[in-house]
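Re: weekly structure request thread

Next one in the queue (421 aa):
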Amino acid sequence: MSEPIAHHPARKAALGFIFITALMDVLSLGLMIPVLPSLVKSMAGGRTDDAAQWTAAFGMVWGVMQFVCSPILGMLSDRYGRRPVILISIFGLGIDYIFMALAPSLWWLFLGRIIHGATAASFSAAGAYIADVTPENGRAKAFGLIGAAWSAGFIVGPALGGVLGKIDLHLPFWVAAGMALLNGLYGLLVLPESLPPERRVVRFDWTKANPVGSLKLLGSHPDLPRLGVVSFLMQLAHNAYPSIFVLYTGYRFGWDTAQIGLLMMLSGVLGVIVQAVLIGPIVDRLKERGAVIAGLICFVVSFGIFALAPTGWIFASGLAVSAFSALIQPGLMGMMSKRVGASEQGQLQGANSAIMGLTAIVGPVLYGLSLAFAVRHEQSLHLPGLPLVIAGLLALAGLFVILRTRRASLPTGEPGLDPVR
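Done, posted below.
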């Protein structure tokens, strides 16, 4: 039997590979975020309400594809290893950006979203990779690497995307495609496999490689159903950012793509500070459940600031509070990964990706249509921040659920857990 990578001296190097892969992935994603809504708006006649509805439809088709396909990729990673799934996802991302760069119409953008939604599993596979190479008591901190990569990518990506978008709305997509494909080549050459053959599932099980079968895992271990509900509510609330952030700030404060990119850069800087410097000490002091609770409280408060801020400066100040919501995902993933065995980590990440896909179906519709409604009824409603109020209420519901979830994880060695870890 080969030595488990979790106890191998190469573990830190493997985590470094995952961090760089995730960083490049997010950097390419960040390039296009400030310009995609503007590109959609330019193809939809220039109206904010129409663009909000089209953006909602784009997000929904992406979510449908991820909801259907992510459990398959999760099961594939349990059967054949994490590395091929990560590489498939990265190359799929590059193809998606090429389609968006060439898009002459909204229907081409739809096709690109379908391709990306079908392969969007790089972060879930990276989560399973981290669970493979990290002992249980260090997973929350290690999962923070993914969040740190996300924030670090957003320091440069959106700002650069905003500047490039002022030159040509298609240019950021070409740059993003190049970065994603280079990232895939990097992983192809240097990323080692984390799941040895003896720890893989013996066969590919179609009964588990579908959204319903994948989500059944969440009901097979104590506490996982409630943690799954928290994950759903948190991700649905977070979906407000990609769904309406650009359109909302442009409508509310008149910000252009460059200003929005700089604001996202500020958000990334604050996120890196929290994730790279503060998550470890906070998790050590509050433990994983306490970190999730603290993060959800900050999430609720930040949405209140974003929804009600009378000026752009007050809106921007909410980013300092929102940065601490980065505590939620590492703590939550640490709690969930302790409740399943080594051969189920990919299935767990597939279930989490299915939850993400489900929120990506619901979120753009919920927030896009509520923004369109608020804009059209501004004279009587006087609340353009309605979508952000809804997101804050969802985060508050998640807080109530985690408060009802027990503090301790199951002892190592109970059914469903791998005593080796």
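Residues 257-308 form the longest helix (52 residues). The chain has one domain: 5-196+207-403.
Next request, please.
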